[in-house]
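Z., the sequence and structure:
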Amino acid sequence: RPIAGARISVTGKLFARVGDTVELVGVWAEHERFGRQFKVKQCTVARPDTADGIVAWLSSTLPTVGMARATALVERFGAELWAVLETRPHELASVPGITPANVEAICTAYAEHRSERDTMIQLRAWGLTDNQIARCREVWGSLVSVVEHVHGNPYDLCKHVHGFGFKRADEVAIRAGIARDAPERIAAGIEHALDEGASNRGDCFLWGATLEREAVKLLGVDPNKLGAGLRLSIQVGRIARRGKRYYPTRLDEAEHRSAVRFARMIARMKNAEVIDLGERRQQKGVIVQADKQNYG
């Protein structure tokens, strides 16, 4: 435990500004070059509670407020300053040099700060870490946009943000209030089952019965609930249905392109002479195909 008032080195994503008072959650680590450091997993900005801390925060966060005005505000309002900013901002104009236009700019900046703080609290409540929030911002920009995407469809996380698979996105979705039998959850689970079949077993498609079994096992829902999610995935073009076979759209399209190219190749080879190197003899229009290739 560090000595009170001692300086420490911290690493990690810090959603904080100069002058902020922060509460850090993390672990201590020993760096071979820089020595003992605190690796931050979560950073929460708290209101500064000392005069120096408040002055530093005001002067670094609010427009038109330098050190002199920040000091004057603290001297004028003391512990009431936060209540004045939130409920009686017009009183700020009682400090010499602060005009009504300054008050408006200060109120706008303070509201943005509060919105950002509240948004971070919301995202953390949904189970996202600060590092994951930072990666979301790299994809979607502002915190407001991150909230809109995660609230609108949490399963976009596993499609667009590095480090999220279906199960992690599903945890966020459940905490964000998505029902277990919601069509968007079922659609995401079905798509994940198809992707798993392709990446783990090399299956270009799954038979309907197999897909149903995999999806029920993954999602823990009644099989009768799968229909709405399946229709949604087909409707938006993420799954293709061919009879009783279900494909990820990208593999269905790839298979179609391969068939077209194969047909063109056959057409070009009708009169071609092909040498069979194994038996050293000539044949006309020979095409060899593995008879045990697994497409499903």
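The radius of gyration is 30 Å. Residues 280-296 have pLDDT under 50 and may be disordered.

Let me know what you think.
H.
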